[in-house]
Write a sequence for this structure.
């Protein structure tokens, strides 16, 4: 495994329904495909993005700003893949 | 049956309650009450040596529950429902939840049942704090899952809800898995104490076409399993233990409703053309993208009113140009080749969005800073929406409608904003449609009276009768002291509608009507007779209204309209219309009403 690294950035939830159950399950499924630890934060609260309930508990409506943080060997790849999913509105729009 | 005769024969008397009509239809059957709050959780401590075994028992229960949901999922055809269940399966694989339960078992030495119940309560509490209804409602997902896991742990497999076919399910709330399962059980109806428009049980009941009334507060304390229950999903009523001849009457009504519904729905896709060849476009009103399929299913020829203000509610940040673009694109693609008419945001201090601050409280919100006036004041927010819509119009027949116009100057200011949005896109080098039809909503008396002036500048007009009636008659129909004055067939309203239709015809501008009047079978003849050629309504009303149009002639509609225009009071007009419609469309009148309520909100 390559050297551990951390990649982070701000994203906006753009799909009409926000990070609701269906969108959250896509996010969590994708996060689980990577070795990196993945964290998602809104305001002061940061949750494990590999946890469905964690992501739901953030209660992100559309327009929410979230901070995505990936740490691990495949952090860069992981961040890019997740950021693309979020920016593309989870394929819903 | 005399009152004395019935005494003592029943344990409880007849009981009637109302709630939210969530899915139309009438269901009658014995109640099957699901009271989940009764599940007993044993709170036992365990010895440290057996903690590993206890964790394994927990993991096994999680696996068994995932499998149960997999089985239910496998029986479902519909994509939407499967996706919801998939999300629940993921909750069952959730590392945080599993980790928390394992900590409770290993460190606090709680039995698996107690640990699961505790962890579920913690999640429930967290979701409780969300200020968005959608996320608060996910509390029920976690409670349902916890209960299934508990049943697996307790070895209680008999607890799976299997109501007998034909029964009416009464529950506090239902999970999507439950609702899908109930469909297979062929239940007659659903009543829940909790829930509103956005609850999964309401959405799923609508899409599975099971009669349902939700939000019936206190129903669980009033009905016992076995009690006979009537669910009226058209009116939003529930009757427990109907008495005497009442039951027979409700049964007959149900049978007639079902036969009627089948007949009307069979022909939902046929165009609405009168016997003498007048085509009337029948479109749907739409508020939530989640309901996008309803219009298609009920044969709507496009969306006549897209209420874009819902994009500004229950959220943390303003929708920007990109989101307007994507949302509009999705909707128009679904409905092409039929058009989708986007009403620009219609917000006001009585219909607020926390994202658009109001300068001061208003004594009279209906006449205050609202709708187009607010949009012109909040120009950047308005331009964001207009740019998004103009860009989306590249992908299909999109139209823009400006609400609450009260003068020519106001209309011009709105049109100017559209032109500015176009210029901005032009200089930014973005692709947009140059020929997007822009229309005006006629909902103030001044706009209706001056419709000829407005018609000269727009591509279409749409009469919003809800507000037009309120402003013209000075009646708030939500005020039950004066709501008797809310009369759609008041001579003033009839004259205004006729005037707008004529102004449209003179300027070759189509005139549609998108208030609740459009969904009401009583008014179909009068409206078309007055010259309206497009109606937009609650999706489930479309087949009924189309059916009436196909069974009528434009000539008889015009004759009725002429008769009604000659009346001097709304009462007289009502009598004429009712007599005519009762004679020709008694079933449509009886079963077709009330559908505007299903969608309202």
């Amino acid at each position: 495994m390559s050297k551990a690294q951390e990649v982070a950035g701000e994203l906006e939830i753009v799909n009409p329904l926000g990070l609701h159950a269906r969108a959250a399950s896509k996010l969590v499924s994708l996060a689980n495909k990577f070795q990196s630890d993945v964290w998602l934060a809104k305001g002061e609260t940061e949750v494990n993005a590999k946890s469905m309930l964690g992501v739901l508990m953030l209660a992100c409506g559309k327009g929410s700003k979230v901070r995505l943080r990936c740490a691990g060997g495949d952090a860069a790849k992981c961040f890019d893949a997740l950021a693309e999913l979020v920016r593309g509105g989870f394929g819903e729009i | 049956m005399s009152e004395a005769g019935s005494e003592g024969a029943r344990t409880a008397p007849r009981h009637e309650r109302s709630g939210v009509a969530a899915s139309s239809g009438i269901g009658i059957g014995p109640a099957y009450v699901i009271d989940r709050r009764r599940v007993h959780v044993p709170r036992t401590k365990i010895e440290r040596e057996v903690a590993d075994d206890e964790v394994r028992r927990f993991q096994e229960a999680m696996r068994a529950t995932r499998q149960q949901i997999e089985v239910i999922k496998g029986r479902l055809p519909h994509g939407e429902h499967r996706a919801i269940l998939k999300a629940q399966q993921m909750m069952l694989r959730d590392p945080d939840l599993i980790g928390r339960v394992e900590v409770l078992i290993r460190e606090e030495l709680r039995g698996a049942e107690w640990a699961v119940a505790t962890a579920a309560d913690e999640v429930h509490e967290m979701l409780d704090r969300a200020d968005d209804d959608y996320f608060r409602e996910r509390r029920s997902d976690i409670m349902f899952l916890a209960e299934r896991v508990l049943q697996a742990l307790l070895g209680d497999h008999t607890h799976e809800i299997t109501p007998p076919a034909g029964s009416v399910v009464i529950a506090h709330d239902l999970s999507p898995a439950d609702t899908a399962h109930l469909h297979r059980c062929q239940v007659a109806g659903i009543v829940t104490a909790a829930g509103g428009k956005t609850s999964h049980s309401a959405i799923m009941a609508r899409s599975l076409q099971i009669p349902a009334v939700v939000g019936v507060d206190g129903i669980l304390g009033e009905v016992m399993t076995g009690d006979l229950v009537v669910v009226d999903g058209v009116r939003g009523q529930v009757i427990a233990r109907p008495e005497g001849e009442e039951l027979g009457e409700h049964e007959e009504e149900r049978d007639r409703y079902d036969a009627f519904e089948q007949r009307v729905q069979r022909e939902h896709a046929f165009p609405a053309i009168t016997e003498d060849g007048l085509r009337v476009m029948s479109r749907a009103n739409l508020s939530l993208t989640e309901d996008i399929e309803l219009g298609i299913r009920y044969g709507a020829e496009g969306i006549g009113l897209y209420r874009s203000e819902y994009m500004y509610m229950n959220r943390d940040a303003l929708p920007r140009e990109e989101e307007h673009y994507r949302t509009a694109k999705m909707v128009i693609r679904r409905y092409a080749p039929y058009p989708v008419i986007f009403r620009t945001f219609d917000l006001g201090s009585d219909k607020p969005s926390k994202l658009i601050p109001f300068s001061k409280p208003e004594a009279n919100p209906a006449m205050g800073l609202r709708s187009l006036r607010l949009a012109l004041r909040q120009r950047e927010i308005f331009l964001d929406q207009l740019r998004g819509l103009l860009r989306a119009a590249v992908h299909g027949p999109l139209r823009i409608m400006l609400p609450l116009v009260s003068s020519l100057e106001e209309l011009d200011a709105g049109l100017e904003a559209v032109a500015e949005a176009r210029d901005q896109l032009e200089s930014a080098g973005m692709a947009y449609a140059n020929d997007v039809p822009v229309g005006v909503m006629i909902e103030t008396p001044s706009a209706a009276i001056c419709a000829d002036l407005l018609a000269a500048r727009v591509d279409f007009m749409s009469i919003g009768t809800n507000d037009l009636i309120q402003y013209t008659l000075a009646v708030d129909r939500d005020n039950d002291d004066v709501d008797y004055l809310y009369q759609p067939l008041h001579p003033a309203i009839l004259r205004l509608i006729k005037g707008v239709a004529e102004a449209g015809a003179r300027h070759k501008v189509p005139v549609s009507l998108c208030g609740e009047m459009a969904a009401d079978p009583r008014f179909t003849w009068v409206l078309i007779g007055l010259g309206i050629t497009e109606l937009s309504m609650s999706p489930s009303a479309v087949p009924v209204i189309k059916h009436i149009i196909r069974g009528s002639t434009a000539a008889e509609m015009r004759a009725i309209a002429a008769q009604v225009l000659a009346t001097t009071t709304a009462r007289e007009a009502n009598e004429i219309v009712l007599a005519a419609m009762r004679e020709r469309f008694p079933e449509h009148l009886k079963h077709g009403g009330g559908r505007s309520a299903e969608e309202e909100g």
Notes: The CA atoms of residues 45 and 73 of chain A lie 25 Å apart. The first strand of chain A starts at residue 5 and ends at 12. The radius of gyration of chain A is 12 Å.
